[in-house]
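Record minuted for everyone:
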Amino acid sequence: MRVAGWLVSVCMLIALACPARAASTEPTPDVVSLGQSIVPLNGPWRFKTGDDLRWALPDFDDSPWETLDLTPAPGAHDGDVGLPGYVPGWNLRGHDGYTGYAWYRLKVVIDSDARTPLALAGPTYVDSTYQLYVDGTLLGGPGVFSGTTPIAYSVRPSVFALPASSSTGKRTYLIAMRVWRDPLDASPDGGGVHIAPTIGTAASIDLLHQVQWLRTFKGYVVDAVEPLAFVLLAIMVLALAACRTRDSYAWMIVALLLLALLRVNQVTYAWTPLQSLHGYGMATGVVLKPLVLAVWTLAWRDWFGLDRNRWLSFAVGLLAAAYIAAALIGHPWFGTETSAGIEAGAEVAVRSARLVLAALYVWILVLGVLQRDRHDGYAAVLAAILIGIGLFATELNALGIPGIWFPYGTGVARGQYAYAAFIVLMFLLVLARLVQAATAHARAMRRH
């Protein structure tokens, strides 16, 4: 009930908010009248690529800069978890393919009681990280800008208290955002700020901040729950392996644990500052994804009792190694630029390795269907298909199959649905084999 009350309160606050003025070519400030309201700072902002710390100063002349409006279309949201207020990045605003620094500047005049503390909710979606300055003073941000190349971390909801004013009338702030777009961020509509910051009374911004975190939590909670189910399934399969049947389950145990690690890695990046963008990309794109594809291929081979195809282990190992090598050299993981030719060649190698692994995966499923001595053959094939929907999401996207839906405004990926169905089916499959093993063991004991 408390969360519901927060949501209703924020909706009322947003309804009371005064909209920003329409775009203007003149560098005049936005005048915001605050009661108990919050106002998204859609601009238009002054925008310039490049980097100069003098651009944070309030007396800097930004009139030659271009303007960039962050006003979203009605009902707009991002394509991942459903964050509202999303606008395309600078790729679609005349700076296609640009990576590096850029600055946003906006002068805001606040018409409110000077005794009321004010705050600003930072942007919740930025490619790739940012620092926030107010009147030339750095207030913070999710990135580390101390080195020659900034270190980007996930952009999470944040609140910045605005400095108090000694005057009794209107308060003027120069808000500047120093943005860094990492070369790893390569989305077609990417670049810069996608969701505008919001200004308001400190109490109202605190309420908005809680709702923003609720949205972020809802967007990734499935990715946190499903890994627990994978670990429990791995424990069940371990118990099945302890029954000393003729089947091999080692690869299935490893596959379930690696998939759990892959899924929880996304949650760790989105919810915490424990992983940088490069660390997350390295763990996910270079290590876990190739290993997960390879190990699941071998896991189903053993599940269907296709042990005679031992050459498959060697082939899958080579493909995984090629995938890892191509993913490693295809991106600037260590801060050095990768040439276009090397990047394109590495991308082709990654796609080729994935397609060959997909072909082997399907071939194993066909052989599994043809097995006549397996009572769970068709159900196991269905389970493998469900896992494959998540594992080969890139290939399914290329076929034009929708990859994400937004029930109740929260993004749920196709793979999340498939994994949920797999967990139920795999539980039944493992339970059935456990019962069969226990029954066989009881019969053997009676014979003796």
